[in-house]
């Protein structure tokens, strides 16, 4: 913390002349500021600065860091409010703002801004206003978003100040108005560039009012002529302009450049990005050259350039060289201006004015130079007032009237009323000769810079440039790139020539002829002190644009002098037609005039000799007039008025010229003396005015410097882009080279491929021929083979034939063999026959012999016979006959026998067949028998079944009968018992009858007959059947049979006996039932006894056996037979012996059977 | 087979007729000799005589029964048949009022069915008589085996149904008397019954099993729905008659399936 006293000391120490102390103190302050956050120190510093204008303090204040900005702004705000300190504090603010502190964005929020605006609206001091406006203009790009709040304020200020320019309220010095006008002009540009829609709508509303109409006509409209239509007017809107997003991506310098882009004012405009191509060229170029040609002011410039060769000339190319720049915007020469900003820092208005720095040595100045200067001042003074423009108010300058300068004053007129003046004041013949100083200078600069920076020097420049870059890394990169570029440029200097050159007027020149080019170049370099060599080099650059004329640079130095004059006039006339066209080629007339003006270049004197000044003037005027007539003033309409900036520039220069001139004339050391000497008694406020003016100029300069810095920033960026583009181009070139190499490779490969293909085709052909050859061989061989095959076929057929023949022969052979065999056989047979015949012959012989012998014998016998009797023959004959007969007999007998045999055989056959028939018959018979048997069996079975049925029926009937009997007997039981006691036998007979009667009921005839007979004879048969109960002795034999018959069918009765007996049992007591059968004879009789015994036995022992029972029964019978024999003598007599008591036995048997059955049934 | 058929195209026809081989004469003879019931001998010549005998026998028996007043004109024909049969077989009870034996009931049922089939009373009587005799003699041993066979085939055809029956313990309570002793007399309508009895007469009592199986299968849903053996039995004793024809057809198919051709099963 610095104590107040301490601070004061330190502040005083700040201004100490010792550099070290000053630095130390500055460091101390900065340290304090760093540690202290309070406003006090800043306030103190501001106060101190206002008091002393101390530069170190200013330095400290402008480099204040973040926390102090508020204090500073507060302090400034405070002082801005006070009228006394307003100017100085505005200057301070300008310093601060121009350095673009890091906290610049806070400006829009700070209370300072409204205060400043209010001040600008209220204040009446032109100096303050101008300063404030410039500060505001500087601030606007930094705080574009503030427009939303203060836009109307800005516009109000513009409206107020623009009207000021015209109305000149109060006692404002007119020279101030020039400055004010310039600043208003700048404000106009800024506002129009940043907020076109709003601004235009403001203009529309504000200047539609009648009271403002004049201001518009006089001030605003000329300004508007220096701007193009803003694109935002088409695409944007009022709201869009104020949108913070729009400004976010733009930096301060971007905004500045944006504003500059829409300017048509060559001093303001920036031609980037194609804005420049169409309009500027068409509108500005046509008139500029003409102006230059006719303008004597060129002399001034030339002389000025020659005399000073100050950085001033080089500090402007950014603006002035633009027409040329345009052409080279993308090429390397376009980087030319960049090295110069550093130099610009050295420049100061004082230098221009020649106030502080010593004037250039007169030795440098050409003799003619002083002359134009005087002219300038003279004209400004003379012409300014009648026009009524601010520019026409000349400062108290020496009045050196010259005809030449008369015209020079015209630009000021044009600045306000460009064409109107011309129309109304036709008396001014040279109106059209508006000296476009900047343009002229631009050309001049163009030439000079071209001379200074040649292509060969470019790498060096680039290197320097790279060194100046902030970023070291980038520096390195770009240095590398630039080195590369240098190599490339040195290697291939010609092709890298700017493309833009085609568009440039120079390019036209180069096309139209080398001479013209030389003229233009010469005219461009007239005023410059540069040597012809750089110029040539620059021309060299241009030349290569058209590769056809690549030789022209060589011709230029020599041909320039020789041909230029000769062809000048012709060209002028011939090119007038060209001038009529809107093409930018207007240089030739200028060159001619330039030559005529007789200018410093070393070879100028030649022109002067060849073409006198007057002639030159005459010619130029004539051409101008002709031009005007031909054009019908088209270019004047399009020509914009001189901008206030130019007016200001001119004013300054005039002032400087006047000053230096006076100085040189009078060589007076002091100003006061000057003034007294000049105008006698100088006005009291003259000095103050001058100071103010100086101040204003300073402000203006600072503003311009600010702009320049912005441009520099932008240029650096552009350069970077350019370098990058160049690098990319190089890369492209390298790639192209590679491509070429590769294409070459491809070519080589293609060649080799073709070779290979050729070889291949050759080989193919060879192969084909081989193949065809082989094919033919194959065909030949095949043919041969076929032939052979045919031969073999033939041979085979032959072989076949031979085989056939052989087979045939074999067959024949066989046949022959057969024949041979046959013949052999025949032979053997024949031989056998032969032998036989031989033997036969022998036999014959033998027989013959025998015959002979026999014959002899016969003869002998004959003889003997003859000798004997002839009866022997009869006997023999008889015998023969007998034999014959016998033979015949035998034969017939044999025949008979044979016949008999046949018949017997036939008979046998017959018999055999008969036998077979018989057998068959027998079989059939057997079968039939079987059939019959079966049939009979069937019938028999049927009959049997019938019989069975009959038997069943009979049984049923019997049962029924028995049943009935039982019923009957039951009824007549007692009666019978009594009867039986009397005559048992009779009763038995009766019962038999009764039984027979019962039988009659059921059965047919047999039983009836049987019952009918009833006798002893009949009892054995049918009577026996029914004589079951026959207890009679007489019928005993028959009854035994019947009993046996009856006893055999045991089961059926027993089965029925079951239920029957049961029925009996159910009916009543069994005991009485049994007696009905069992005790049928009598209870006292033997049978009854036996029955009782049996029943008792049965009841006692139920399981007695049949056999034993019968045995015992028979035994008992036998034993008792003897007893009863006597008793029943009659019965035994009637019956057979062995059957004494069949009825009893029968009844007993039946009873027993029944009993047994009953028992059996019970068992089952 | 193809060769066989090529050799004699009639073989199919022969098989249809029940000839086993192509030696049709022999087969025919065998067939002709066959006397399934024994009512008439195979010999046609004796037919008239035998038939006369049969008729006489019938008349005799009928007369005898009438004589002993066992039957009257009012006696139903079926009972007449029964009495005649009883008489012929010596089983005639002493009185008509005696209660009937179970076998008599069987006879009555069969007779009733047969009466529907045969118009002539003599024929009818003889057929009934021989049919019953066949059942009693020829099939005396095989009839008791049929329930087991039924179980076996039912298991093959539908084991679930058998399981259900077993679970209801209805297997032993099925109407075997109705099915196998009466040969479905009174269970199936005569038209269907005829076809079954044809097989039975021809010598296959197994057809009865298949008819029973088929009845169970046909009324499976119903049987499955019933849970008690009594209900099942009751239902089976009174099965609806309308589907009997289909049942019999299916049963014959089943019989063919399980026992092959009728010749084989015979």
TrEMBL record, chain A:
Residues 1005-1019, 1155-1164 have a biased composition (Basic and acidic residues). Keywords: Coiled coil. One of its GO terms (biological process) is D-glucose import. The keyword Ligase does not apply. GO terms for molecular function: ATPase inhibitor activity; Hsp70 protein binding; Hsp90 protein binding; protein folding chaperone. Residues 1024-1039 have a biased composition (Gly residues). GO terms for cellular component: actin filament; cell cortex; ciliary basal body; lamellipodium; lipid droplet; lysosomal membrane; postsynaptic density; protein folding chaperone complex. Residues 511-531 have a biased composition (Polar residues). InterPro entries: ARM-type_fold, Hamartin. PANTHER family: HAMARTIN (PTHR15154:SF2). This is TSC complex subunit 1. It comes from Chinchilla lanigera.
Automatic annotation (TrEMBL), chain B:
PROSITE patterns: TBC_RABGAP. Keywords: Cytoplasm, Cytoplasmic vesicle, GTPase activation, Lysosome, Membrane. GO terms for cellular component: cytoplasmic vesicle; cytosol; lysosomal membrane. It is found in: Cytoplasm, Cytosol; Cytoplasmic vesicle; Lysosome membrane. GO terms for molecular function: GTPase activator activity. GO terms for biological process: negative regulation of TOR signaling. Its main location: cytoplasm. Pfam families: RabGAP-TBC. Residues 1-204 form the Rab-GAP TBC domain. PANTHER family: TBC1 DOMAIN FAMILY MEMBER 7 (PTHR13530:SF3). Non-catalytic component of the TSC-TBC complex, a multiprotein complex that acts as a negative regulator of the canonical mTORC1 complex, an evolutionarily conserved central nutrient sensor that stimulates anabolic reactions and macromolecule biosynthesis to promote cellular biomass generation and growth. The TSC-TBC complex acts as a GTPase-activating protein (GAP) for the small GTPase RHEB, a direct activator of the protein kinase activity of mTORC1. This is TBC1 domain family member 7. It comes from Chinchilla lanigera (Long-tailed chinchilla). The gene is TBC1D7.
């Amino acid at each position: 913390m610095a104590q107040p006293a301490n601070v004061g000391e330190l502040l005083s120490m700040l201004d100490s002349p010792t550099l070290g102390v000053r630095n130390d103190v500055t460091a101390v302050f900065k340290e304090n500021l760093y540690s202290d956050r309070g406003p006090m120190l800043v306030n103190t510093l501001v106060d101190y600065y206002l008091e002393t204008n101390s530069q170190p303090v200013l330095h400290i204040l402008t480099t204040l860091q973040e926390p102090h900005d508020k204090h500073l702004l507060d302090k400034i705000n405070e002082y801005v409010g006070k009228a006394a300190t307003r100017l100085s504090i505005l200057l301070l603010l300008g310093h601060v703002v121009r350095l673009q502190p890091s906290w610049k964005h806070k400006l829009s929020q700070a209370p300072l801004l409204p205060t400043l605006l209010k001040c600008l609206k209220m204040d009446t001091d032109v100096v303050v206003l101008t300063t404030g406006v410039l500060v505001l203009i500087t601030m606007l790009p930094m705080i574009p978003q503030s427009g939303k709040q203060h836009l109307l304020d800005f516009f109000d200020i513009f409206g107020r100040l623009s009207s000021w320019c015209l109305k000149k309220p109060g006692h404002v010095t007119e020279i101030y108005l020039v400055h004010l006008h310039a600043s208003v002009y700048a404000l106009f540009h800024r506002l129009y560039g940043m907020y076109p829609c709003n601004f235009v709508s403001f203009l529309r509303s504000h200047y539609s009012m009648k009271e403002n109409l004049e201001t518009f006509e006089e001030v605003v409209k000329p300004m508007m002529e220096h701007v193009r239509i803003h694109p935002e007017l088409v695409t944007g809107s009022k709201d869009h302009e104020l949108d913070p997003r729009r400004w976010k991506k733009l930096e301060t310098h971007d905004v500045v450049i944006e504003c500059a882009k829409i300017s048509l004012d060559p001093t303001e405009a920036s031609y980037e990005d194609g804005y420049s191509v169409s309009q500027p060229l068409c509108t500005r170029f046509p008139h500029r050259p003409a102006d230059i040609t006719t303008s004597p002011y060129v002399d001034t410039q030339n002389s000025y350039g020659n005399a000073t060769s100050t950085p001033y000339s080089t500090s402007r190319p950014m603006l002035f060289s633009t027409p040329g720049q345009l052409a080279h915007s993308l090429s390397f020469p376009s980087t030319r201006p960049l090295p110069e900003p550093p130099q610009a820092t050295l420049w100061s208005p004082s230098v221009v004015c020649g106030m502080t720095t010593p004037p250039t040595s007169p030795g440098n100045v050409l003799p003619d130079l002083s002359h134009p200067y005087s002219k300038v001042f003279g004209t400004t003074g003379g012409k300014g007032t009648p026009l009524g423009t601010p520019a026409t108010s000349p400062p108290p300058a020496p009045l050196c009237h010259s005809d030449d300068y008369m015209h020079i004053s015209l630009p000021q007129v044009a600045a306000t009323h460009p064409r109107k003046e011309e129309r109304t004041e036709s008396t001014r013949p040279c109106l059209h000769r508006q000296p476009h100083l900047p343009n002229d200078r631009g050309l001049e600069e163009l030439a000079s810079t071209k001379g200074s920076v040649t292509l060969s020097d470019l790498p060096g420049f680039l290197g320097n440039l790279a060194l100046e870059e902030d970023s070291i890394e980038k520096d390195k990169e770009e240095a590398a790139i630039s080195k590369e570029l240098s190599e490339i440029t040195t290697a291939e200097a010609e092709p890298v020539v700017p493309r833009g050159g085609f568009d440039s007027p120079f390019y036209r020149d180069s096309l139209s002829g080398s001479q013209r080019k030389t003229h233009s170049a010469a005219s461009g370099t007239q005023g410059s002190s540069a040597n012809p060599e750089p110029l040539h080099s620059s021309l060299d650059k241009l030349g290569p644009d058209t590769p056809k004329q690549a030789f022209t640079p060589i011709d230029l130095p020599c041909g320039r002098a020789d041909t230029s004059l000769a062809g000048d006039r012709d060209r002028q006339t011939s090119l007038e037609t060209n001038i009529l066209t809107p093409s930018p080629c207007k240089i030739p007339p200028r060159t001619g005039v330039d030559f005529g003006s007789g200018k410093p270049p070393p070879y100028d004197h030649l022109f002067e000799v060849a073409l006198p000044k007057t002639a030159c003037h005459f010619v130029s005027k004539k051409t101008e007039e002709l031009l005007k007539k031909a054009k019908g003033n088209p270019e004047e309409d399009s020509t914009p008025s001189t901008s206030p900036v130019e007016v200001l520039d001119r004013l300054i220069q005039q002032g400087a010229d006047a000053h230096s001139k006076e100085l040189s004339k009078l060589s007076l050391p002091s100003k006061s003396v000057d003034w007294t000497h000049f105008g006698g008694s100088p006005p009291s406020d003259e000095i103050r005015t001058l100071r103010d003016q100086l101040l204003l100029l300073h402000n203006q300069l600072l503003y311009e410097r600010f702009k320049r810095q912005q441009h520099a920033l932008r240029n650096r960026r552009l350069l970077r882009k350019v370098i990058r583009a160049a690098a990319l181009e190089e890369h492209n070139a390298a790639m192209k080279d590679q491509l070429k190499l590769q294409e070459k490779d491809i070519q080589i490969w293609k060649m080799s491929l073709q070779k290979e293909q050729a070889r291949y085709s050759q080989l193919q052909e060879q192969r084909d021929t081989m193949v065809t050859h082989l094919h033919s061989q194959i065909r030949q061989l095949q043919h041969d083979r076929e032939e052979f095959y045919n031969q073999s076929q033939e041979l085979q057929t032959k072989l076949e034939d031979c085989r056939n023949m052989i087979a045939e022969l074999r067959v024949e052979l066989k046949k022959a063999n057969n024949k041979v065999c046959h013949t052999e056989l025949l032979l053997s047979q024949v031989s056998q026959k032969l032998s036989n015949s031989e033997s036969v012959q022998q036999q014959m012989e033998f027989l013959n012999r025998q015959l002979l012998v026999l014959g002899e014998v016969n003869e002998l016998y004959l003889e003997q016979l003859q000798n004997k009797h002839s009866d022997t023959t009869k006997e023999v004959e008889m015998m023969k006959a007998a034999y014959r007969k016998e033979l015949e007999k035998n034969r017939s007998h044999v025949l008979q026998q044979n016949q008999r045999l046949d018949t017997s055989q036939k008979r046998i056959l017959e018999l055999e067949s008969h036998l077979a028939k018989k057998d068959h018959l027998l079989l059939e018979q057997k079968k039939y028998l079987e059939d019959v048997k079966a049939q009979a069996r069937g019938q028999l079975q049927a009959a049997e079944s019938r019989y069975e049925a009959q038997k069943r029926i009979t049984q049923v009937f019997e049962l029924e009968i028995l049943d009935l009997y039982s019923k009957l007997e039951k009824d007549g039981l007692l009666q019978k018992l009594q009867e039986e006691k009397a005559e048992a036998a009779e009763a038995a007979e009766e019962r038999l009858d009764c039984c027979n009667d019962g039988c009659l009921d059921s059965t047919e005839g047999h039983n009836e007959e049987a019952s009918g007979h009833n006798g002893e004879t009949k009892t054995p048969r049918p009577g026996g059947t029914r004589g079951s109960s026959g207890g009679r002795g007489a019928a005993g034999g028959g009854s035994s049979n019947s009993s046996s018959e009856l006893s055999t069918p045991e089961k059926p009765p027993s089965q029925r006996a079951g239920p029957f007996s049961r029925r009996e049992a159910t009916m009543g007591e069994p005991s009485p039932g049994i007696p009905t059968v069992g005790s049928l004879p009598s209870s006292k009789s033997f049978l009854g006894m036996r029955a009782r015994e049996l029943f008792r036995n049965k009841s006692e022992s139920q399981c007695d056996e049949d056999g034993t029972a019968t045995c015992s029964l028979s035994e008992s019978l036998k034993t008792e037979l003897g007893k009863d024999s006597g008793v029943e003598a009659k019965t035994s007599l009637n019956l057979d012996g062995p059957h004494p008591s069949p009825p009893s036995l029968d009844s007993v048997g039946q009873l027993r059977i029944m009993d047994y059955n009953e028992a059996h049934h019970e068992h089952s | 087979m193809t060769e066989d058929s090529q050799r004699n195209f009639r073989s199919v026809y022969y098989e249809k007729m029940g000839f086993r081989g192509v030696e049709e004469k022999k087969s025919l003879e065998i067939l002709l000799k066959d006397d399934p019931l024994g009512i008439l001998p195979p010999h046609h010549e004796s037919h008239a005589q035998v038939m006369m005998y049969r008729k006489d026998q019938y008349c005799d028996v009928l007369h005898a029964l009438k004589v002993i007043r066992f039957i009257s004109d009012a006696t139903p024909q079926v009972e007449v048949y029964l009495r005649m049969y009883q008489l012929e077989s010596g089983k005639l009870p002493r009185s008509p009022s005696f209660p009937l034996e179970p076998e008599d009931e069987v006879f009555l049922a069969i007779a009733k069915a047969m009466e529907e089939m045969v118009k002539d009373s003599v024929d009818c009587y003889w057929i009934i008589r021989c049919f019953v005799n066949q059942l009693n003699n020829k099939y005396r041993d095989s009839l008791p085996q049929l329930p087991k066979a039924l179980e076996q085939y039912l298991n093959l055809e539908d084991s679930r149904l058998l399981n259900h029956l077993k679970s209801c313990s209805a297997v032993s309570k099925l109407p075997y008397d109705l099915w196998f002793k009466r040969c479905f007399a009174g269970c199936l309508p005569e038209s269907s019954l005829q076809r079954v009895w044809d097989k039975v007469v021809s010598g296959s009592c197994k057809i009865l099993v298949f008819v029973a199986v088929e009845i169970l299968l046909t009324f499976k849903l119903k049987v499955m729905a019933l849970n008690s053996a009594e209900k099942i039995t009751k239902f089976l004793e009174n099965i609806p008659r309308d589907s009997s024809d289909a049942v019999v057809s299916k049963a014959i198919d089943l019989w063919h399936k399980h026992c092959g051709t009728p010749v084989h099963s015979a």
